[in-house]
Amino acid sequence: MADHSGLGTDRGALLALYDLDAGGFRHLDEITAFASTLCDAPIALVSIVEEARQRFLARTGLDAEETPRDVSFCALAMLGDDIFVVPDACGDPRFADNALVTGPPHIRFYAGAPLIDSAGVPLGALCVIDTQPRADLTPLQRQGLTLLARQVMVELEGRRRDRDVIARQRQDAAAIADSDRMFRTLADTMPQMVWSTLPDGYHDYYNARWYEYTGVLAGSTDGEGWNDMFHPDDQERAWGRWRKSLETGEPYEIEYRLRHHSGDYRWTLGRALPIRDWAGTILRWIGTCTDIHEQKLMMEEREMIAHELSHRIKNIFSVIAGLIGLSARQHPEIGAVAEDLRDRILALGRAHDFVRPHSAESAPQVGQGQGLLWGILDQIFAPYNARDRSRIALSGDNVPIDDRSATPLALLFHELATNAAKYGALSVPDGRIALHIAREGADVRIDWQELGGPAVQSMQPDGFGSRLITLSVERQLGGRIARDWSADGLKLSLWIPTRSMSRSVGTE
Q: Quick check: pTM over 0.85?
C-alpha cells in the first residue's frame, strides 16, 4: 500500500469542499452501470470513505446508501496505488467475519480502484462486487476500471471547481455591483476564462485569461464577435442556447469547441448565471469558459472500450454456436440436441445485441425498440414472422426491460416459440399465437395463447424445455406461471414483478 501523506489532513473538511450532500451524481450513476457491465459484476459502487461510514455517491445493484466504515473494503482499497482485489472474501482472514460477507450483499469477490484527489488525499474507491469468488479481473477490465476511476475524479474535481467558481462569482458580483473596476481586477486574477454581459446579452468584458487562451486582440470579441470563436459546426447551436437563456433567465450551460491561440479547436464548457437585484431583475450575466478537452478525450476512450467489449462478447456467441455446429457434424447422433442448443445460444446473442453497451455510433435508433419488451420480442420472433407478420400478434403494453431481464426473457420466449414451431400452433400453416402484455398491480402479466394448431399434450414437467421456462420465470425473474393445455391450444400466463423487468421502473 502506498503511504499517502494526505491521510494526515482533515479529510472531513476536504470532503466538505465537494458538497456531497447536494446530490446530483447522474454521471457517476452512468459510470457504475458501465463498470458493472464491463466487469460482469452485479454490483458497482462509487464509495467515499468518511470517519465513521462509507457513503455511496453512485451505486448499481445495491439498495444501501451507506455502511459503517469498520466493514468497508474500500477503506483498504483507497490506500493503494493499484486495483485492490479480494478473490474470495470467505477465505481471506481480513474479511471472513465481515458483516457484508456473512450477510447481505454476501460479498465474495471485490475489486476496487482508489479515488485520489489532486493533492494525493485518498477519498474512497470505485469498486465492483460479485457474490461468487473469482481469480481476478481480466487485463481489459483492469484497464477499464482504472480509467473509470479517473473519470470519477474528473467529475468530482470538476464539481468542486465549478462549485467554488460559481460561489465566488456570486459573492464577488454582489460585493462589486457598484465597482466595475474592482470586478475587472478580481476577474483578471482567476485561472478560468471569465466574461460578462449586459442584461440584453451584449458582451462587454473578458478577463485576461480569455485573451491569453484565444490569442485574439482585446475588444475583438465584444458584442456578438464571440460566436466567431466557436467551431463552425457549433456556432448556431451556441447562439441558440444563449438566446434562450436571455429570453428565459435560465442559467447558460453548453459544451462547444473554442478556437485556441494555437489554431486548434478545443472542447470547452461554457456556463453563465444571471445577477439579479432584490426584485429579480437581471442586472448582468457573469460567465466562465472551462477547457474540458482532456475529459472529452477520456470519454471517447471509454466509448471505445465499451464498443470493443461488446464486439468481443458478440464474437464469443458466434464462436460457441460454430463449435456446436461442428460437433453436430462430427457426431450426427447429437444433431437434434446440438441444433436446439445452437438456437438457444443464438437467442442469447440477440438478447445481448439488444441491451449491450453501445457507442454513439452503434446505438439503435428510437424506432428499434431499444429498452422495451416488444423490441426484443421482435428479434426473437423474426424467423416466424418473416413471411406473415400476423403469425405472432403482440398487443397491450410495451414495458421497459434492461440487461438483467433480457437474457431470461430471450430464453423464455425462444423456448415457447420453438415448442410452438415443433408441436404447437406454428407447426401448421394456419396456426397463430396471440401474445398480450398488461401491467397488473406490481406485476407485468403476459398471456401466451396458441390458436389453430394441433391438439396439444402437456409438456413433461421434468423436460429440459419445461425446466428452462420455469428457471427463467421463477428463479431468474421471480415470477410465477400458470399453464392450461386446452383442446384449443396451449394457454400460458406469466406474472413477472415490474422491478424484475427493469431497474429504473422498479425504483420509481
A: no
Domains annotated for the chain, with CATH where assigned, are 5-161 (3.30.450.40), 176-291 (3.30.450.20), 364-506 (3.30.565.10)
pLDDT of the chain, 508 residues: tens digit per residue: 444 444 444 676 677 777 777 667 788 899 999 999 999 999 999 999 988 899 998 999 999 999 999 999 999 999 988 999 999 999 999 999 999 999 999 999 999 999 998 888 899 999 999 999 999 999 999 999 999 999 988 888 887 777 777 667 777 666 655 556 666 666 666 778 888 889 988 888 888 888 888 888 888 888 777 777 889 999 889 889 999 999 999 999 999 999 999 989 999 899 999 988 888 899 889 888 888 888 887 776 766 665 555 555 556 556 565 666 666 666 776 666 666 566 656 555 655 555 554 444 444 443 344 578 888 788 777 767 655 557 888 899 988 888 778 778 877 887 888 788 778 888 888 888 899 999 999 999 999 998 888 876 655 555 666 777 888 888 888 889 888 877 778 888 999 998 888 876 644 4
Q: Contact at 8 Å (CB) between 112 and 77?
A: yes
Residue 351, phi-psi category: left (phi > 0), alpha (psi -120 to 50), beta (remainder): alpha
**161 three-state secondary structure:** helix
Q: How far is it, in rounded angstroms, from Cα 132 to Cα 86?
A: 11
Q: Using CA atoms in the order 158, 162, 165, 168, what is the torsion angle rounded to 10 degrees?
A: -130
Rounded to whole angstroms, the Cα distance separating 23 from 428 reads 58
